[in-house]
From TrEMBL:
It comes from Natrarchaeobaculum sulfurireducens. [4Fe-4S] cluster 1 binds at residues 70, 73, 168, 225. Its cofactor is [4Fe-4S] cluster. One of its GO terms (cellular component) is ferredoxin hydrogenase complex. [3Fe-4S] cluster binds at residues 319, 322. Signal peptide: none annotated. Keywords: 3Fe-4S, 4Fe-4S, Iron, Iron-sulfur, Metal-binding, Oxidoreductase, Plasmid, Signal. This is Ni,Fe-hydrogenase I small subunit.
Length: 405
């Protein structure tokens, strides 16, 4: 199949994302950055529909594999509400050459329908490598169940684009949770669950750190438990139009995964005043009852869920960090305050909040103190030392090195 030549985000010729002589070829991820919920999909629904029609018309082949997962990411994508795209999305879902949950075919007929060189390979769920029979699809020529890991290793190198949908496929997710009691003398996690290119926060995924698809890209990780349907739709539309998404250190599209939940939280004022909820339902910042917002990057505070209706923190639920590598061991046990290390050693969220209040009173400035306490980072940051050296007599005005992120 023929796909448009990939184009780098850095090559964008216009601020609105238009490319070269054709304004219909757009980098939807670039357009999505900072936009309100549903804006880009609504405004450019026709162009997004054209991109998806390449698959529904048979011009492109899409294979969607499922490993160790709860099918939650599939359900999330199926329930995405886009009235202006309803028809093309329905056709897209039906025309995917292989999807074990939604395709009408079964057995050998379903396997025969799967493309052996898909244009887009989508994987949902983690891949078990220590117990490969924990996730199988179809059979080998000798009649044995064929492990998912074999399918991934065969199809990924033949694919133009490889997308990991959800935290499990991206980083291992909950199936990769630590085997803390060493059950059955197995390894770090029971089945050896891994993501496509990452295992938690290390590049030990099934495909290895050097893997690139036919388009020259690493696996594009669309993390989340579940993934936001917008992330899948806009990413597919972007790559099908020949654009290269700008990715972060974990190969996540930056427009979706750059904002810090804590910075955009509707309860942020409570944190800055040092007011913390002690139990669920209490008024105040939720960090003491397990909120992982200072460590979690995603734009769902502005994108919202359920057709732009709400998000976890809006209904009193702490952020559980499901967009991050290392979920969920990294933030477990849920409901308890997340500990962290900073320049000053172990500092609780409550101490960080009160430090912000005290520092603001003596003129250091809230941003300098947030940098100094290192919230949002287990490793501290480059500006922490400079901020820590700020004296009470320092000006409250930001310097060149003390600007908002």
């Amino acid at each position: 199949m023929s796909l448009p030549e990939p184009e780098s985000v850095s090559q964008a010729s216009e601020a609105d994302g238009s490319r070269g002589p054709s304004s219909s070829r757009r980098n939807f991820l670039q357009l999505a950055a900072g936009a309100a919920a549903g804006t880009i999909i609504t405004q450019y629904s026709t162009e997004i529909g054209v991109a998806l029609e390449q698959a529904t018309d048979g011009d492109l082949e899409v294979v969607w594999l499922q490993g160790q997962a709860c099918t939650g990411c599939t359900i999330s994508v199926l329930q995405g509400q886009y009235p202006t795209l309803e028809e093309v999305l329905s056709e897209f879902r039906l025309e995917v050459t292989f999807h074990p949950t939604i395709m009408p075919e079964a057995g050998e007929v379903a396997i025969d329908a799967m493309s052996d060189s898909p244009d887009v390979l989508i994987v949902e769920g983690s891949i078990p490598v220590d117990i490969p029979e924990a996730a199988t699809v179809g059979q080998t020529p000798d009649g044995e169940s064929k492990p998912l890991v074999d399918w991934v290793q065969e199809l990924a190198p033949e694919s133009e684009y490889v997308l990991a949908v959800g935290n499990c496929a991206s980083f291992g997710g909950w199936p990769a949770a630590e085997n803390k009691r060493n059950l059955y003398d197995l390894g770090a996690n029971v089945t050896g669950a891994r993501g496509l290119q990452f295992e938690q926060r290390t590049e030990r995924g099934v495909l290895g750190p050097d893997f690139t698809s036919g388009a020259g890209l690493p696996v594009i990780n669309l993390a989340g438990c579940p993934v936001h349907p917008d992330y899948v739709l806009l990413t597919i539309a972007t790559v099908l139009n020949g654009h290269v998404p700008e990715l972060d250190a974990y190969n996540r599209p930056k427009p979706f995964y750059e904002p810090l939940v804590h910075d955009n939280c509707p309860l942020r004022g409570y944190f800055d005043r040092g007011e913390f909820a002690e139990t669920p339902g209490d008024e105040g910042c939720l960090i003491k009852i397990g909120c992982a917002g200072p460590y979690t990057r995603c734009d769902d505070q502005t994108r919202l869920w359920n057709d732009g209706t709400s998000v976890c923190l809006n209904v009193g639920s702490p952020c559980i960090g499901c967009m991050e590598p290392g979920f969920w061991d990294r933030f477990a046990p849920m409901g308890e305050e997340v500990e962290r290390q900073s320049l000053f050693g172990s500092i609780t969220a409550e101490q960080a909040g009160w430090a912000g209040v005290a520092a603001a009173g003596v003129g250091i400035g809230a941003h300098a103190v947030r940098k100094a306490t290192g919230y949002g980072s287990f490793d501290g940051d480059e500006d922490a030392e400079a901020a820590a050296e700020a004296s009470p007599e320092s000006s409250a005005e930001p310097t060149d090195g003390d600007t908002e992120d």
